[in-house]
Design a protein that fits this description.
With 259 residues, this protein is an all-alpha fold. The protein has a domain of 181 residues. It has 11 helices and no strands. The radius of gyration is 19 Å and the shape is globular.
Length: 259
């Protein structure tokens, strides 16, 4: 009797992996990086880059100001394009029967942020806060939005719980939902709900911490401060999203169950 090899899946972290001591800190590190990137966009361009609802609101608010509407639309489309790009490393590989390259998209985000930091050092995007709603601002906002879309979708597609580190409103909603579930359930169900609420709370705290940490660095180094989230993302990817890290996580889970 021949054994059928299971088809590859883009999900490399199951529910217990996401909540484990090995992977959970990586999700929080990615949220910290997202908070840092968002604040750098705010200080440099006076606009958020991972706050999609804010971008869509600006499109409506600037109705009739066709140039501004188009530029904000470009920022929104850049975020969507980043999400689409994650498909190339994940779902396209799976469709072709190959193992997904979960780490590839995240390393690409890290590299792109480092490239933007270098461009900032060369004054490609101008001085911080010196102008708003200029083409150079929207170019920077679009690039940063692309990185956040790529990171959010890659991470969300890689774990069974659909956790997205830059989806702040989603994390806030998760806290309420799982605290509510903890109230009506007991035993193992309550414990799982509490752990999910704790993870969502950690993501919110990490996002805010990243925002706080980056402010003094951005004021001193401007866009070069993007090297911090670049390194954090690379570290989290190396720890939890590369193939060897996945194998180590499986080994740790086996050992944990055995003990």
């Amino acid at each position: 009797m021949s054994l059928v090899k299971p088809a590859p899946s883009a999900i490399i972290l199951n529910a217990s992996d996401v909540l484990s001591r090995r992977a959970a800190p990586s999700f929080m590190a990615l949220a910290l990086a997202a908070g840092s990137v968002n604040v750098i966009g705010l200080i440099h361009c006076r606009r958020y880059v991972s706050h999609v609802s804010g971008t869509v609101t600006r499109i409506g608010y600037d109705f009739g100001k066709w140039t501004l509407m188009f530029e904000y639309l470009c920022v929104l489309l850049a975020f969507i394009a980043g999400a689409m790009a994650s498909v190339l490393a994940l779902q396209l590989q799976v469709q072709r029967g190959r193992a997904p390259r979960n780490a590839l998209g995240l390393f690409a985000v890290s590299t792109l942020l480092a490239a933007i930091a270098l461009a900032g050092k060369l004054n490609v995007f101008g001085a911080s806060g010196g102008h708003t709603e200029e083409p150079v601002d929207f170019a920077l906002m679009a690039l940063l939005a692309f990185t956040m879309g790529l990171m959010n979708s890659t991470v969300g597609s890689s774990n069974a719980l659909g956790v997205r580190p830059a989806h702040v409103s989603g994390s806030a909603a998760d806290i309420g939902v799982h605290l509510g579930l903890a109230l009506i359930h007991s035993g193992a169900e309550r414990q799982r709900a509490v752990r999910r609420a704790a993870l969502a709370s950690g993501l919110l705290a990490a996002f805010a911490t990243g925002a706080a940490l980056i402010v003094p660095l951005q004021k001193r180094y401007d866009l070069v401060a993007l090297l911090l989230p670049s390194l954090v993302i690379a570290g989290a990817t190396f720890r939890s999203f590369r193939p060897r890290a996945q194998a180590q996580a499986a080994t740790d889970a086996t050992v944990s169950r055995a003990t």
